[in-house]
């Protein structure tokens, strides 16, 4: 796992990159939060491909629990992925509701993630 810093509008955002899935359970989310928080970041970009598929199955409650941890620590997060082919109505609604808020965003590009996180 590597942190790539992006600066826009006087705000620095940590993009988490990896060749593997690094977010598989709640503890991984807590470790990630501690890592970025310790390094002074309060805005994070995650890639959907680095997150376990169980996260996107809302019946597991993994997404809700992990994203709640980010919210509790006031870390804004954008998850970058391809959201066009979602077949789950509940996931589609979850993404729409998240994007209407101010803490969690689902975007299709890093540039869109940076725009949402730094406005």
UniProtKB/TrEMBL annotation:
InterPro entries xrefs: DUF4180
Pfam families: DUF4180
Residue ranges constituting the DUF4180 domain according to the UniProt record: 9-117
Name of the protein described by the UniProt record: DUF4180 domain-containing protein
Taxonomy of the source species: Bacteria, Pseudomonadati, Bacteroidota, Chitinophagia, Chitinophagales
């Amino acid at each position: 796992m590597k942190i790539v810093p992006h600066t826009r509008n006087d705000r620095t955002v940590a993009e988490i990159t990896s060749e593997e899935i690094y977010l598989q359970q709640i503890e991984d989310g807590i470790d990630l939060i501690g890592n970025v928080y310790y390094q002074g970041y309060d805005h994070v970009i995650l890639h959907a491909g680095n997150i376990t598929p169980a996260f996107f199955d809302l019946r597991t409650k993994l997404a809700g629990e992990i994203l709640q941890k980010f919210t509790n620590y006031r870390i804004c997060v954008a998850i970058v992925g391809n959201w066009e082919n979602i077949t789950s109505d509940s996931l589609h609604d979850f993404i729409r509701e998240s994007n209407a808020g101010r803490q969690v965003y689902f975007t299709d590009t890093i540039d869109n993630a940076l725009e949402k996180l730094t406005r």
